[in-house]
Inverse folding.
């Protein structure tokens, strides 16, 4: 084939989605606080049968370190929101993962600071297609308190607590077996046994492990890993979007100075 011949696209979108929502009439129809406005929209999304996992959002961070040769290289992944409070948006992660290192680049090890150090900037994006609604957040990361982290960690199923210890998130695995061996090592270390099976790696649709009753009362909670915990994104910019016909969407952006407790400015943006 000639080098001047255009290659066939690997993917191509031919449909043209129409957005026929009622839109956002004006700023006066919104809450004075973007966090309260988020709460209202999130409640609507949670109640909507066609919105699957409304808590899922895209989290974008930036790496500027030796590995990036000083270049600002972004990375994005899907994360699950766990709480919104009067300060911001909370999720949980391994602080030594790529996102953890990019959210808290100042520490020698991101997991070395136990209580609420200020981190780097990040952005978040929610999209609820069934409602033709989207929310974009820009803010700065901070670690939540150890007490808050412990309360959430111990509310998780014991298998998820084991997984947090076993996974060296974002590091290279030579195979699935390496991860499963790490899970079994943590189970042995803390005396954990899955209900009715020998290991949590034997649980699920592809389970092939030997069944066996637990020999002792199951462990209900593990200590929180020192490298794992909560992150709060404290916003200074939040945008609410609703799709409208002919791509004439409604966009309203809240802003205030970083670190301010003052009133938010709300403006309409061109679509």
């Amino acid at each position: 084939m000639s080098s001047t011949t255009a290659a066939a696209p690997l993917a191509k979108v031919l449909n043209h989605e129409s957005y026929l929502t009622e839109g956002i009439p004006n700023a006066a129809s919104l809450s004075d606080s973007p966090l309260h406005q988020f709460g209202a929209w999130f409640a609507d999304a949670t109640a909507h049968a066609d919105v699957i996992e409304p808590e899922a959002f895209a989290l974008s961070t930036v790496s500027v370190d030796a590995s990036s040769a000083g270049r600002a290289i972004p990375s994005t992944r899907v994360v699950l929101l766990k709480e919104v409070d009067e300060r911001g948006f909370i999720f949980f992660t391994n602080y030594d993962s790529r996102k953890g290192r990019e959210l808290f680049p100042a520490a020698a090890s991101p997991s070395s600071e136990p209580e609420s150090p200020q981190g780097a900037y990040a952005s978040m994006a929610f999209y609820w297609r069934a409602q033709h609604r989207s929310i974009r957040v820009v803010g700065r990361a901070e670690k939540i308190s150890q007490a808050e982290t412990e309360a959430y960690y111990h509310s998780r199923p014991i298998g998820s607590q084991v997984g947090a210890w076993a996974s060296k998130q974002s590091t290279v695995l030579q195979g699935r077996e390496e991860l499963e061996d790490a899970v079994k090592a943590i189970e042995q270390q803390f005396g954990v046994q899955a209900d009715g099976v020998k290991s949590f790696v034997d649980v699920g649709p592809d389970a092939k492990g030997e069944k066996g009753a637990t020999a002792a009362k199951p462990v209900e909670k593990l200590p929180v890993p020192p490298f794992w915990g909560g992150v709060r994104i404290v916003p200074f910019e939040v945008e609410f979007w609703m799709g409208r016909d002919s791509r004439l969407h409604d966009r309203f952006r809240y802003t205030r100075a970083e670190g301010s407790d003052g009133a938010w400015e709300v403006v309409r943006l061109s679509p």
About this structure: The beta strands are 56-63, 73-80, 83-84, 89-94, 118-128, 133-143, 228-242, 250-255, 265-269. The longest strand covers residues 228-242.
